[in-house]
Description:
The chain is mainly α. The chain contains six helices and no strands.
Amino acid sequence: MAELMLAQPSPLPVGPVRDYGIGRGGMFALIASEAALFGYLLFSYYYTGASAPGAWVLEAHPKLRLALPNTFILLLSSVAIWRAERATRRGERGTALLGTGAALVLGIIFVAVQLVEWKHKSFGVGRSSYASLYYITTGFHLAHVVVGIAVLAMLFIWTSLSYFTPTRRIVFTNGSYYWHFVDAIWLLVFATYYITPYLGFGV
């Protein structure tokens, strides 16, 4: 039997293919742990706001002039990377490059707008528990966006070097999952800090 196996060796494994591989489980584990972090932060907002004896939020009507367009920017970036990932599945390298590049540029714009918004806030991080939670939550999210931008940059470079094929694309797929996660978290953060005060929470 051993002689037969040596005489007719089977092809060596080439690593994870398509949607399957150890990297996929690792990415889902990372997303789950980071989702728990943001869950704790958002829970702290609602718990502290509901327990406060009087008006708690520092902005009863948060300005949406920057936050709302920034939300659409991040959503557009998610559409762009989704389109790029689909193109990678079909071997359309040019479309994948275009989508990844667009998502990368939109992510950078989001960071710039977020920093401008922080600069124009009327309160600092140590002003109150609300201020601390606002800056910690949006700050953690911004850090995740920066990491996502680094991921998108690497995906763009590797796509330009033709590293991905319809079969070998799990790295690109995992990167797109992470970016979608960052975008989904922002929707929760935006609804919490920018919408709930308009509904009377903590006011």
